[in-house]
Structure formats: C-alpha cells, structure tokens
UniProtKB/TrEMBL annotation:
PANTHER family to which the protein is assigned, alphabetical: VON WILLEBRAND FACTOR A DOMAIN-CONTAINING PROTEIN 3B
Domain of life of the native organism: Eukaryota
Name listed for the protein in its UniProt record: VWA3B protein
Gene name tied to this protein: Vwa3b
C-alpha cells in the first residue's frame, strides 16, 4: 500500500467522502421531523402530519428525529456499503499495526535521515534494533526518494556523507552497513545531540 497518512486515506475512503456518515444516510432514507419556530405565530409549531405514518429514529447526538421513508432494498444497500467500509477499516488498521509501521509509523517524507542511538543495548537488543531497521528500510524507505543513516557515537558514523537516492542497490548497501556495525562503540554525553544536528544539517531533509 502507498505510504499515505490516515487523514489523506480518509479523504478517499472515509464515510463522509462516500456519503455513508449517519447524517448523510438519514437524509437519503427519510426526512427530519421538524419543530420550528414560526415568527408570525410567535411560537413553536410541530409538523404532526407524519406522526404514526413512518418509523422514527432519534439521533442520540442532538435529539433530532427522522421519519424513515425508504424501502427495505435501499436500507439493505446501505447495510452492504457499511459492511464493506468496516472491512476496509479493519484492513487499514491491520496494515498500520503490522511490520515496521507498528514501530516507525508511516513514513511520509520523501527524504529522511535515520539516527541510530543504541545506547547500552545488550547484544540481543542490538540485533532486534537492526532487524527493525532493516525492515523499515526494505518496506518503507524503498518507496521514498532519498535517505541516509547516522550512528550516534564519539566518532560520528555515517553510511553516506549526505542523503542518497533510493534504489535496490543503495537499500541493500545500507542494510549491509547496518549489520557490519560493532555492538560497542565509544560514546559521549553529547553523541545523540551531535548526530541529530548532523542529520538536520542535510539540506535535502524536509523534517
């Protein structure tokens, strides 16, 4: 799936966009039971002509009442549409909470620098971190334009001097570089900040 934010995804697949929100459905299967203020009479006048003629639905949000006039076929059509929307939402949630996205979210920038700060991770944790980073490189970075890796250390370590165009070769090279890193490396109390400043100094990086 393309790396789009949930807000952009909802602009295409959301209930409102597809006229499936509650208020939109109600307006297509009935009409609102009005109680309006008539200025000339100086009082509220209820439209009683629909009382008892139609099934009614009261919205819990605002207490408005709708007279339902649609035939069964139209209501079943909306049921099918809503069931389809629920299935689509489930798929989206499963995708958002799987693989690299459950750790890194959905990368939306076209140029990124990933700063690696392994701190005092034990060897098993170090390998888990590298597994996760390899996953995000293969699954998400392959869909953007440029990237780089910087390891926070006393002597800063960079995969490339500046962000590099994405290709199968560069992603494979970055994964190889990642797995050749030593577990332990000298660090200082300013290593993390220096690595972040170095990442932000790359003019191609948007954020």
């Amino acid at each position: 799936q393309p790396l789009v934010s949930s807000s952009k995804w909802l602009q295409v697949y959301g209930l409102k966009r597809n006229k499936l929100s509650l208020s939109q459905i109600l307006s297509q299967i009935g009409f609102q039971h009005r109680k309006d203020y008539v200025t000339t009479l100086g009082k509220l006048v209820a439209s009683r002509y629909a009382d008892g003629l139609f099934p009614q639905y009261e919205r819990a949000q605002d207490g408005s009442v709708y007279n339902l006039t649609a035939k069964k076929e139209l209501i079943l059509h909306f049921v099918d549409c809503l069931m389809g929307a629920i299935e689509l939402y489930k798929q989206r949630i499963e995708w958002l909470t799987s693989e690299s996205r459950q750790i890194f979210g959905v990368i939306q920038e076209q140029c990124i620098v990933i700063v690696l700060d392994f701190g005092t991770a034990v060897p098993a944790e170090f390998d888990l971190c590298r597994d996760a980073l390899s996953m995000v490189l293969v699954e998400q970075v392959t869909q953007i334009a440029k990237f780089n890796l910087i390891r926070a250390a006393q002597d800063l370590m960079k995969w490339q001097q500046k962000s590099t165009p994405v290709s199968k070769h560069t992603v494979k090279s970055a994964v190889t570089w990642l797995w050749k890193l030593d577990h332990m490396t000298a660090a200082s109390h300013t290593s993390s900040a220096e690595a972040l400043l170095e990442a932000m100094s790359d003019e191609a990086v948007s954020s």
